[in-house]
Q: What sequence folds into this?
């Protein structure tokens, strides 16, 4: 079932489908943590700057891998169907969001660097899409910062999934899979990416 050796391999494969943006005025935004590894390979290959699009998934109580939404600094995405399916109460949702906003602030302070994206193309990259909540939050956050257009690019996603029109203008995905349960099984190595690795990748890019 695996398609990619690891996230770097996924980045090399994804970069081939993004060649049209090589050397453009676009900025590559990776979603921490794993998406930054994929995005770093793409940014380097296309000669584009790399930044972080910090978002946090909202996981269902007692089932954190089941996404019921996502948040960015200025965006909140909630999956009403997931709330109903999980019988999540407003109080439970509020508790989850409060916890994740603490982590969101920590990661923003650690990973985010100022970047004027107004009038420019933002290429948003993650290591895959499952529910799409985090990718949607990242795209809408960059839209609010007046990006000229949003390109959402991921190595793998469910065959039937497409981003909302208000989130992304272009969707690039080389592997649209019908048998899809989670992102991890499509990688031979899906080891969790550390904060230190993300900081190093971003710091290297900022040094030029």
A:
């Amino acid at each position: 079932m695996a398609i990619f050796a690891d996230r770097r391999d996924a980045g090399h494969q994804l970069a081939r489908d993004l060649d049209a943006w090589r050397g453009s005025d676009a900025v590559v935004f990776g979603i921490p943590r794993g998406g930054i590894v994929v995005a770093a390979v793409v940014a380097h290959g296309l000669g584009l700057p790399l930044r972080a699009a910090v978002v946090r998934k909202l996981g269902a109580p007692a089932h954190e891998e089941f996404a019921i939404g996502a948040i960015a600094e200025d965006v909140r995405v909630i999956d009403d169907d997931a709330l109903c399916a999980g019988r999540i109460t407003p109080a439970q949702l509020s508790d989850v969001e409060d916890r994740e906003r603490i982590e969101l602030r920590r990661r923003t302070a650690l990973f985010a660097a100022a970047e004027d994206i107004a009038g420019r193309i933002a290429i948003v990259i993650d290591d895959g899409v499952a529910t799409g909540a985090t990718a949607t939050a990242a795209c809408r956050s960059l839209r609010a910062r007046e990006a000229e257009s949003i390109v959402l690019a991921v190595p793998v996603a469910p065959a039937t999934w497409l981003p909302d029109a208000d989130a992304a203008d272009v969707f690039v995905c080389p592997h649209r899979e019908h048998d899809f349960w989670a992102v991890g099984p499509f990688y031979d190595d899906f080891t969790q990416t550390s904060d230190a690795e993300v900081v190093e990748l971003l710091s290297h890019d900022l040094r030029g």
